């Protein structure tokens, strides 16, 4: 028995994958295709993708947001978990990386669920707010440039319905958030973590899965 999270070495990590991961074949292909790409480490881990898919199903999500697509693994995991009428608005600025995702979304038969918008995410989110979409989304995943995380969080919170869930990636930043900040990304993550801890608009849990994943559930009384 232990009263804190276990350290996960390679042997235990492989065991976790062996006994729990149920990865769609196209997700596995996409992981393989991403390994040879520059900045391949930006891809989420497969167990995180599976966990997010579980969250999607648990909250009955139909309308979701994704901020930061890279090669499309998280979008694909989400799309596979959504019901037939589910939709993702996916925000990114890199056509080269997202084209890899498009090919695999098509192969998995879920491309029609993913509305990829190649533009600065803040612009896309502001446009959705201007269109009257506040309070209409069920789930948002934030995994993009760290210095804009707070901007993305505030806009996603406005766009979410009461009871909707925001998942924020990389909140542990390979442990750097627990040390004096040496760069703008670390400082931005530290500031957001402190802000979220005190934010009464949400219920909160910071999980140690992968590089740290914060879940923030929008509370009643703070709907737009």
Q: How do you describe this structure in short?
A:
42% of the residues lie in helices and 20% in strands. With 224 residues, it is of the alpha/beta class.
Indicate the percent of residues in helices: 40-55%
Helix and strand sequence: HHHEHEHEHEHEHEE
Find the structural class using helix and strand composition. alpha/beta
What's the gyration radius in Å? Answer: 17 Å
Tell me the strand percentage band: 15-25%
The biggest beta sheet reads: 7 strands, mixed
Low-confidence stretches: none
Oligomeric form = single chain
Gross geometry? globular
Structure annotation, total helices: 8
Distance between the termini: 44 Å
Strand order, sheet with most strands: 3-2-1-4-5-7-6
Mean pLDDT: 96
Number of separate strands: 7
């Amino acid at each position: 028995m232990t009263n804190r999270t276990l350290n996960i070495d390679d042997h235990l990590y492989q065991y976790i994958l062996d006994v729990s991961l149920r990865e769609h074949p196209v997700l596995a292909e996409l992981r393989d295709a991403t390994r040879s790409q520059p900045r391949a480490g930006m891809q989420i881990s497969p167990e995180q993708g599976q966990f997010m898919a579980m969250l999607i199903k648990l909250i009955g999500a139909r309308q979701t947001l994704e901020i930061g697509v890279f090669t499309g693994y998280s979008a694909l995991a989400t799309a596979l978990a959504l019901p037939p009428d589910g939709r993702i608005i996916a925000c990114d600025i890199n056509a080269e990386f997202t084209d890899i995702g498009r090919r695999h979304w098509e192969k998995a038969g879920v491309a029609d669920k993913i509305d990829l918008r190649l533009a600065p995410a803040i612009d896309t989110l502001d446009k959705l707010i201007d269109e009257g979409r506040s309070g209409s989304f069920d789930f948002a995943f934030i995994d993009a440039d760290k210095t804009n995380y707070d901007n993305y969080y505030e806009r996603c919170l406005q766009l979410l319905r009461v009871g909707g869930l925001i998942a924020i990636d990389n909140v542990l930043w390979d442990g750097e958030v627990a040390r004096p900040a040496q760069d703008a990304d670390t400082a931005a993550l530290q500031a957001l973590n402190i802000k979220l801890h005190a934010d009464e608009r949400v219920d909160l849990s910071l999980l140690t899965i992968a590089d740290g994943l914060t879940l923030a559930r929008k509370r009643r009384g703070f709907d737009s």
